[in-house]
Write a structure and sequence with these properties.
heterodimer, A: alpha/beta, Rossmann fold, GMP Synthetase, Chain A, domain 3, 14-stranded mixed beta sheet, five-stranded parallel beta sheet, B: mainly alpha, Non-ribosomal Peptide Synthetase Peptidyl Carrier Protein, Chain A, 5 helices
Chain lengths: ~525, ~90
């Protein structure tokens, strides 16, 4: 079984269901499959070597989904690109993965000359519109031209796995996981906290196993529709795409989170059942939108991942929407991505927890020597399962540092309680060493956020002649609020050991974010 | 509230957007009709920074439900929005 089979299953079982809604455009599963097959045939006829890397520099759209699945149907590897990266980084990735075809959206045309030069490994570009590129080595084709001149029969037989299902059967799909291909399917480049881009290699089995387990705990059905504000090139956004397709659900794409009111309008208009976001999405919706005055009656659930969300924010969401399921989730790109989730019915008593492993996944806490840590003791969270990556692309040393005996070493510190629920206590790379003491940046951030005046904060270590590292906090106030550094320090001092109180506090109007919505601490540190 | 000259408003807005969002970005300049969303000049927290600026500089209040593209998504739209608020 391969990733394309997820679309084949959705199209076989739910052909007339709406697969994607993007503003005033929509497409059903039958149409989606047909267009995917046409694009796939074009790619096959390009005579690329099997397993060639095909990059996507494309905004969330119906065409993204078509191109994405077409890559798999054609037997190649998808490399979704973070469109917020500078052109030189994108050029680096294209060279690094030796991409031969680029799916390119014309809105990024101003960068094309910097991304693609005469030495580029690219042979083909598929674009939405005519684009100017003076490179005789690259053949450019528009999507609409490919669709208008199909070179494949449009009634493509469905793969066997799709025909074997008369209705959506989750257990049948679980049985298929061991048979699913462990060939490389996609490379997701991560923007790690150290600044270097690394290509996370994910197999068909990695993504399929994680998709099925996520469908399971979210209880997704064909009645579900998710508002997609997260980019598909982000592994969390990619998970929304993969989970809704085999169940016949709907992806409601809206790329306008810049203006949260229009997202809320879309959610009401399209009657979405799910909202998935990172902490900054929730903070903006709860503090700077009319969400609290809207019933959102069709919404069944919220999911939150992409970093720890402070308990104060979770409580506010719970209080505002008491009847809705709230799934706090944890994972990383290297785990395809989902590692654990907190069952909504346990949220109130386990607030702050990242929950329990997904089905088929193991988690344990290990000490510095790799031995299992006792219950309640903090150590590194390690995980194993069919979802764990193949490794980092062309980075065997970095791979060996995190993949050991089948276990993925996440770099996150956590403890397990006596019920088997896990709690993140910090991140190895975000431990600040100040005056001989170790301080968790996360802990300091959470205490600061208990101050009602404060909207967001980011804490990190900065060089200090006396202490080695000093704790520094960047603080963003809620509208109409203010305080000076001394007031914030006094507030922290009442809640934290003295060595954890930020020595330096600065104020900003907003925190720089990556396109995924996560705080860009590297940018903050480089601002200093 | 005193009427603010449209040309003054336009210049102040363009200066703020250039200094706050364009310095160091790949976008060197914008036209008055360019969509901030399409050009990906501002992110969602940048919009909050923009509204803080509008409130401080022009003495208006921007309600949460006014954070919409129609009101804020280009220099032209911002000028119209401010004119509507200041009379």
């Amino acid at each position: 079984m391969k990733i394309f089979d997820l679309l084949a299953i959705g199209a076989r079982l739910f052909p007339g269901n709406k697969a994607i809604q993007h503003l005033d455009r929509e497409i059903n599963y039958r149409q989606l499959l047909k267009r995917t097959n046409i694009i796939a045939e074009y790619i096959k006829n390009s005579n690329l070597e099997s397993g060639s890397r095909i990059a996507l520099m494309y905004e969330n759209s119906i065409e993204y989904v078509i191109l994405f699945f077409a890559i798999f149907k054609a037997g190649h590897v998808a490399v979704p690109l973070d469109t917020s990266l500078k052109p030189d980084k994108i050029k680096f990735i294209i060279f690094d993965c030796d991409a031969r075809l680029l799916c390119f959206h014309s809105k990024y045309a101003r960068f094309l000359d910097k991304i693609v030069d005469i030495d580029s490994p690219l042979k083909y570009i598929i674009s939405d519109k005519d684009i100017n590129l003076e490179n005789p080595n690259i053949q450019i084709k528009k999507i609409e031209d490919i669709l208008r001149n199909p070179s494949a029969p449009t009634d493509d037989p469905h793969p066997r796995v799709a025909y074997s299902m008369k209705k959506f059967e989750l257990e049948k799909l679980y049985e298929k996981i061991p048979e699913s291909s462990d060939e490389l399917a996609a490379i997701f480049y991560t923007s790690g906290s150290t600044g270097e881009s690394k290509g996370v290699m994910l197999s068909h089995r990695n993504l399929i196993s994680n998709t099925i387990a996520t469908v399971d705990y979210l209880k997704l059905t064909e009645d579900d529709s998710v508002i997609v504000i997260l980019p598909f090139y982000y592994i969390y956004g990619n998970s929304l795409l993969l989970t809704h397709i085999p169940v016949g659900g709907t992806l409601v794409i809206d790329n306008r989170f810049l203006y949260p009111e229009v997202i809320l309008d879309t959610m009401e208009k399209e009657r979405v059942t799910g909202f998935s976001g990172v902490p900054s999405n929730f903070i903006i919706l709860l503090n700077n939108s009319s969400m609290l005055s809207r019933r959102l009656k069709h919404l069944r659930y919220f999911t939150q991942a992409g970093g720890a969300m402070a308990p104060e924010i979770i409580k506010k969401l719970m209080s505002a929407f008491p009847g809705k399921e709230i799934y706090i989730m944890y994972g990383q790109t290297e785990a395809a991505p989902r590692i654990s989730y907190l069952p909504p019915e346990r949220l109130a008593e386990k607030i702050g927890s990242i929950g329990i492993p997904l089905r088929g996944i193991k988690i344990k806490i290990v000490d510095e020597n790799g031995a299992d840590a006792p219950v309640g003791i903090s150590g590194e969270l390690v995980t194993a399962g069919d979802n764990v990556m193949l490794g980092y692309w062309n980075q065997p040393d970095d791979t060996r540092q995190v993949l050991k005996d089948g276990w993925l070493y996440t770099g996150d510190l956590a403890r397990m309680d006596d019920e088997g629920y896990f709690f993140i206590t910090g991140r190895k790379k975000e431990i600040i060493k100040t005056g001989g003491n170790r301080v968790s940046a996360k802990e300091v951030e959470e205490r600061i956020l208990e101050n009602d005046k404060i909207l967001e904060t980011a804490v990190f270590g900065v060089e200090d002649d006396v202490l080695g590292e000093a704790v520094k906090a960047i603080v963003v106030f809620k509208e109409g609020q203010s305080a000076d550094a001394r007031e914030i320090q006094t507030f922290c001092r009442a809640r934290l050991a003295e060595h954890k109180v930020p020595k330096i506090i600065e104020f900003m109007e907003s925190l720089p974010k990556r396109k995924s919505g996560k705080v860009d601490k590297l940018a903050l540190k480089n601002c200093i | 509230m005193a009427t603010v000259q449209q040309s003054d408003v336009r210049k102040k807005l363009k200066d703020f957007i250039t200094e706050t969002f364009l310095v160091g970005s790949d976008v060197e300049s914008i036209s008055d009709s360019d969509s901030f969303m399409e050009k990906e000049i501002i992110d969602s927290t940048g919009v909050l920074e923009l509204t803080s600026y509008l409130e401080e500089e022009f003495g208006i209040t921007v309600e949460d439900n006014e954070l919409t593209p129609d009101n804020l998504d280009s220099v032209d739209k911002l000028v119209n929005f401010i004119q509507g608020k200041t009379g």
